[in-house]
Design a protein that fits this description.
alpha+beta; three-stranded antiparallel β-sheet; single chain; 3 domains; 8 strands; 279 residues
């Protein structure tokens, strides 16, 4: 080998690390720019698109690889979400009712691709809120304004069942439903308050009447007991008083006796007034 060939080999060996670094740098740039992987977080599902077309496969949580440019992955939140919606409706007795309801819902995970394909990611504004408005109006119209208050659990359950059936068509599951509050017109609220006041007064009057009746019966019982006690005392005092008068009469007779036996002839007996009583 000539000296010229030896110099060329040495030059190539000397420049090889530079070319290697350039190749590695280009590969790193391509990987970082096109990102041939995707990470699906907790409580999410990935909708796979091939040139914008939704695929049947739904990606679970974790790290997944994709083909750059050709494939795209759209993350969909499948955790339980909460929606609070205000709705206006009319009751069966044509009273205006303003309701505020709370809904907990989630996207059925294995149907995330269908939800994205049919509705997109704005399913709350497009599906959830309109469905709540319609269901609240339909169920509220079946009850009177007073029944909406007295039968609130029944009304809430009817709304939940109807809403569950409606949203299930869009692959959205209802986890919980509750009525935050009802509000009515000022005139109706005043009428309800007057009715409750009248019922409370009637109940109070009834209780007062029962109390007076019981107190009267108690007084009669006490008076009867006192009369019976007085009668017994009077009987006892009369007997004792009679005996006392007899004793007093005998004592007075003894005080007036001069010690001389009365001169009486007869069958030989000697009478003495009050002796028997004195004994």
């Amino acid at each position: 080998m000539s000296e010229l060939d030896i110099d060329k080999v040495k030059s190539m060996i000397k420049n090889e690390p530079k070319w290697l670094l350039v190749v590695i740098g280009v590969l790193v740039f391509i990987v970082l720019f096109f990102r041939p992987w995707v990470q699906i977080g907790a409580g999410e599902r990935g909708v796979l698109l091939n040139f914008g077309a939704v695929q049947k496969m739904v990606l679970d949580e974790g790290l997944h690889f994709r083909i750059p440019v050709m494939q795209q992955v759209i993350p969909i939140d499948v955790k339980v979400q909460k929606a609070i919606t205000a709705a206006a409706a009319s009751s069966a007795d044509l009273q205006e009712v303003s309701s505020e309801v709370a809904l907990n819902y989630h996207i059925i995970p294995d149907q995330s691709n269908t939800v994205y394909q049919i509705i997109g990611k704005d399913f709350k504004d497009r599906i959830i809120d309109p469905a709540i408005q319609e269901v609240v109006k339909a169920v509220t119209a079946l009850y009177t304004a007073e029944e909406l208050i007295t039968k609130r659990p029944m009304v809430s359950e009817a709304m939940r069942e109807t809403l569950s059936e409606r949203l299930l068509k869009y692959h959205i599951a209802v986890d919980a439903f509750s009525i935050v509050g009802f509000s009515f017109s000022k005139i109706f609220m005043e009428a309800i308050e007057s009715k409750q006041t009248a019922e409370q007064l009637a109940l109070k009057a009834k209780r007062d009447l029962e109390r007076v009746k019981i107190e009267a019966e108690q007084k009669i019982t006490i008076a009867s007991a006192e009369a019976e006690a007085l009668k017994k005392q009077r009987d006892i005092i009369s007997k004792d008083l009679i005996e006392l008068r007899k004793v007093e009469a005998n004592l007075k007779a003894i005080e007036k006796w001069n010690g001389i036996m009365p001169q009486v002839t007869g069958n030989g007996s000697v009478p003495f007034i009050g002796v028997g009583d004195l004994q």
